[in-house]
Design a protein that fits this description.
Largest sheet of chain B: none
Order of helices and strands of chain B: HHHH
Largest sheet of chain A: none
Distance between the termini of chain A: 68 Å
Shape of chain B: flat
Radius of gyration of chain B: 20 Å
Radius of gyration of chain A: 27 Å
Order of helices and strands of chain A: HHHHHHHHHHHHHHHHHHHHHHHH
Oligomer: heterodimer
Helix content of chain B: over 70%
Structural class of chain B: mainly alpha
CATH architecture of the largest domain in chain A: Up-down Bundle
Strand content of chain B: under 5%
Number of domains of chain B: 2
Strand content of chain A: under 5%
CATH superfamily of the largest domain in chain A: Cytochrome c oxidase-like, subunit I domain
Chain lengths: 814, 105
């Protein structure tokens, strides 16, 4: 057994030093995780109070605690808060941020500044979502905000402006986090940590990161349509213009069901850490667990329309989505059985974290079984919009996800703070939570079966629902009491809890190898991974006694000496502020929006240069396990996500093609001659871009700069052609509001143009930096390569748009 | 290998200028073919698949040669290709569902 690191001095830990400014400018993944943790805890309390108010209203028939209007706001914001501001950011921002780099043997995430930017955008988005409370204008159309209730005509107040803009902002944060952490897992793993040696928590959240990248773009597109409808009088969801509100449902649930797994996968990962640790056995069936995690991620993207059985999609669609929805029970079942098999014959330690894990298995299974009921369209039709559904998703998301997150809090709290939580208070917290949870949500199954609809703010005394509602309310207050115990426990621990030491649970993975709380740099020496559960083997040796050979890094590791960590940056918080100003300015004063856009652009470029010239950081950009450049991995992941964004726009264009009720159409207004010319110009800009890249790569700065400038000129010509085309269409009477063709055309082509504009700005900045010699060559070359990838992506999107919009203009409809 | 060494090695790699120019020529020819066939009304139902093939070829040329998937690590293809397939699948399924909705399945 090797010697463990001693408890480090407080001043060495990541928590120490910097004051308030240090926290505002931090780019350390652990501090950012703590910021996420505190924020999600705050919103957990906010969402909890909203739930308590609803349960108080429903405790008795014909109660008058809340008006119908306030009740609508409460259930909308309770769902929105718990999903977007609590469970998802807790899994993504807190647990993943804190634990992933430690478990994979990295010193930080791939892009630390981007990590800070994600947090600040998340915080500002959360504020926008909640700011309506101070004006009595909170969102009130439900957490899935169905069109056309959300249209200005039906919801004229600013309530849903806060909702749509707040979700747009926080969605940017989620995508940036997913991109950053996925790149981290792919490229920052310690030498020897193959995918099949990664801790299951990392496996689970890796699939979650992928889901975030592919699930959020459809929601973003749906929200953009909604914002355009509300602010610019378009009609993406208006039947009167030939459109359909059903489009919103598809775009929303394309996000919404993967979102369920985005919330559940971290819980699965936490379970796969807690169960083996407290059973003192390796996880049973690791490969099956890893593959089933991937399969869950894959299937979760193909089940979205089971939320829409009641719409009436026809037997083919209903059957297909019912089948995929039931299939997902198989990999989930594999997980449940693996956890049980891990515990079987183990030396179980009944700590609070483990108790939460046990409760998770029972309650999540119950929620999963009622989910299989909904997967059958005939049964779903009876249960839709009843309290049975409310019971189901709370068993999955609270009894499942939230319980696992609470277990994870007890499990990793010592690593975050260096102190243990009190076990007696912990067990009191657990038992009151279990009792309160089941008392609240089990009766809802009965209420739903008896016909009580969800989202009603009162009911008559003779409906037979009185007792079950009263029990549910008592349960809700029991959970509130339990949450209070948890808070007291946390405060008690922070103020003087027992020191935990680096490895209080006799853990299995690398996070327990470092001190608690960890130093800023995590690992003094990057660990070499020889086997799964590496730290366990470090302590207790390998099976058979022989130590496996050390892995050969794909890229040399730092050799001793000082550890260089990236410096704090003020730009992330400024960019987030600018972005929020830009979006919210639309509600207030357009000049605010313009100022916000300029602030964002200026600070983004400044942060780009700060990052590119960060000196010693550069050496860490080549993955030790893969040999790939982290920045290129990040750009490719971004391009993958953007593919879904444009796919959603293109799908909408095709869906509405030929549905216009009047006005110019593609066939009557598009001029292929002009656009063929601009298309040729854009294609040739890809040639000049790649020649610039090739010249820089060969060390020919002079020609590299010339080709770069040629690309900028060609890109600008393309944009000029697009502006000319838009102007001529305006003159011919085609505006954003004219018809379905006008709105889908301008939105899709306009967003492509916006991407080209961003590309031109990036190339201008690169050209200026290369001309002045600001960049060192090695930084310049990779920056040009990443910019080139983005530029070519914009080019391939245009290849598709040109064909579908211009060349297929005469094809009557999709 | 550190990044300075990689930079030095890159400087000695042969230029791919000729390959890039040939690809640009192919892109121009394919675009011209696309525009030409879009005016041939006699093609009827063949037009759409033909345009899909032609634009698909242009797409592949840019991705393989200008975005370097042909030369670079397979890992980048593993990131991009599934996302692309998913994007295309989403378009097809949404079209299927919405067309059936508009036509009353």
């Amino acid at each position: 057994m090797v010697a463990l690191p001693k408890q480090i001095e407080v001043e060495e830990s990541y928590l120490h030093g910097g004051g308030i400014l240090g926290w505002l400018t931090t780019i350390d993944h652990k501090r950012i995780a703590v910021l996420y943790g505190v924020t999600t805890l705050f919103f957990f309390l906010v969402g909890g109070v909203e739930a308590l108010l609803m349960r108080t209203q429903l405790a008795r028939p014909d109660n008058t605690v809340l008006s119908a209007y306030l009740y609508n706001e409460m259930f909308t914001m309770h769902g929105t808060t718990m999903i977007f501001l609590v469970v998802m950011p807790a899994g993504l921002g807190f647990f993943s941020n804190f634990v992933v780099p430690l478990q994979i043997g990295a010193r930080d995430v791939a892009f630390p500044r981007l990590n800070a930017l994600s947090y600040w955008i998340f915080l500002f988005g959360a504020i926008v979502l909640n700011i309506g409370w101070f004006h009595n204008l909170s969102p009130d159309a439900g957490w899935f905000g169905y069109a056309n209730l959300t249209e200005r005509y039906y919801s004229p107040g600013a309530n849903l402006d806060f909702w749509s803009l707040g979700l747009l902002i926080s969605g940017v944060s989620s995508v940036l986090s997913g991109l950053n952490l996925l790149t981290t897992v792919i490229n920052m793993r310690a030498p020897g940590m193959t995918f099949m040696r990664m801790p299951l928590f990392v496996w689970s959240v890796m699939v979650m990161f992928v889901l975030i990248l592919v699930a959020f773009p459809p929601l973003t597109v749906g929200l953009i349509f909604l914002v355009l409808d509300r602010f610019f009088d378009t009609h993406f969801y208006r039947v009167v213009a030939g459109a359909t509100p059903l489009l919103w449902q598809h775009l929303f649930w394309l996000f919404g069901h993967p979102e369920v797994y985005i919330m559940v996968l971290p819980a699965f990962g936490i379970m796969s850490e807690i169960v083996p640790t407290f059973s003192r056995k390796p996880l049973y069936g690791y490969p099956a667990m890893a593959y089933s995690t991937a399969l869950i991620g894959f299937l979760s993207y193909g089940v979205w329309a089971h939320h829409m059985f009641a719409v009436g999609m026809g037997p083919v669609a209903d059957s297909a989505f019912a089948l995929t929805s039931m299939l997902i029970a198989i990999p989930t079942g594999i997980k449940i059985f693996s956890w049980i098999a891990t515990m079987w014959g183990g030396d179980l330690k009944m700590k609070t974290a483990f108790l939460y894990a046990l409760a998770f298995i029972v309650q999540f299974t119950a929620g999963g079984l009622s989910g299989i009921m909904h997967a059958q369209p005939p049964i779903d039709l009876q249960q839709t919009d009843s309290y049975f559904v409310v019971a189901h998703f709370h068993y999955v998301l609270f009894g499942g996800s939230a319980f696992a997150l609470l277990g994870g809090l007890y499990y990793w709290w010592p690593k975050v703070t260096g102190r243990l939580l009190d076990e007696r208070l912990g067990k009191l917290n657990f038992w009151t939570m279990v009792i309160g949870f089941n008392l609240t949500f089990f009766p809802m199954h009965i209420l739903g079966a008896e016909g009580m609809p969800r989202r009603i703010y009162h009911y008559a005394p003779d409906m037979g629902w009185n007792l079950m509602n009263l029990l549910a309310t008592i349960g809700a207050f029991t959970m509130a009491f339990s949450a209070l115990i948890l808070l007291i426990n946390m405060l008690k621990s922070i103020r003087g809890g027992e020191l935990s030491g680096p490895d209080p649970w006799d853990g299995r993975n690398l996070e327990w190898k470092v001190p608690s709380p960890p130093p800023e740099y995590n690992f003094r020496e990057i660990p070499l991974v020889r086997a799964r559960d590496q730290f366990w083997h470090d302590k207790y040796g390998y099976e058979g006694g022989a130590t496996p050979a050390a892995p050969a890094p794909a890229h040399p590791l730092e050799e001793g000496g000082a550890i260089h960590m990236p410096a704090p940056s003020i730009y992330p918080i400024l960019i987030a502020a600018g972005l929020t100003m830009g979006v919210v300015g639309m509600m207030l004063w357009i000049r605010v929006a313009v100022c916000g856009a300029f602030l964002t652009a200026f600070c983004a470029i400044a942060m780009g240069f700060e990052y590119a010239n960060a000196g010693a950081e550069d050496e860490k950009q080549i993955g030790a396990a893969t040999g790939l450049d982290t920045r290129k991995v990040g750009v490719w992941a971004f391009i993958g996500s953007e593919s879904l964004f444009f796919a959603s726009l293109i799908a909408t264009y095709l869906i509405y093609k030929g549905k216009d009720l009047g006005g110019p159409t593609a066939e009557t207004i598009l001029e292929v001659g002009l656009t063929t010319t601009t298309t040729f110009i854009l294609l040739m800009s890809s040639l000049t871009m790649v020649l610039a890249q090739d010249s820089f790569r060969r060390g020919d700065r002079s020609w590299g700069l010339r080709w770069l400038i040629a690309t900028i000129i060609l890109g600008s010509l393309f944009l000029g052609g697009q502006a000319y085309e838009f102007d001529s269409f305006f003159r011919k009477g085609l505006t954003l509001q004219t018809n379905l063709f006008g709105q889908t055309f301008y939105t899709m082509v306009g967003f492509h143009g916006a991407h080209v504009t961003v590309g031109v700005i990036i190339l201008l900045a690169l050209a200026a930096a290369s001309w002045t010699g600001w960049f060192e060559r090695r930084h310049r070359d990779i920056a040009v390569e990443c910019a080139a990838l983005y530029w070519h992506f914009v080019d391939i999107v245009w290849i598709v748009i040109f064909s579908i919009v211009y060349l297929m203009r005469s094809v009557a409809k999709a | 290998m550190n990044s300075q060494a990689q930079t030095a090695e890159a400087a000695h790699e042969p230029s791919r200028t000729l390959a890039y120019v040939v690809v640009a020529g192919l892109l121009a020819v394919l675009t011209a073919m696309e525009v030409w066939v879009s005016y041939i009304h006699a093609l009827g139902v063949v037009l759409v698949p033909l345009l899909v093939v032609l634009s698909g070829a242009k797409f592949a040329l840019v991705v393989l040669f200008y975005m370097h998937l042909h030369y670079d690590s397979w890992a980048f293809s593993v990131i991009f290709v599934p996302a692309l397939m998913l994007a295309m699948t989403v378009v097809v399924i949404l079209l299927f569902l919405m067309i059936r909705f508009f036509e009353g399945f």
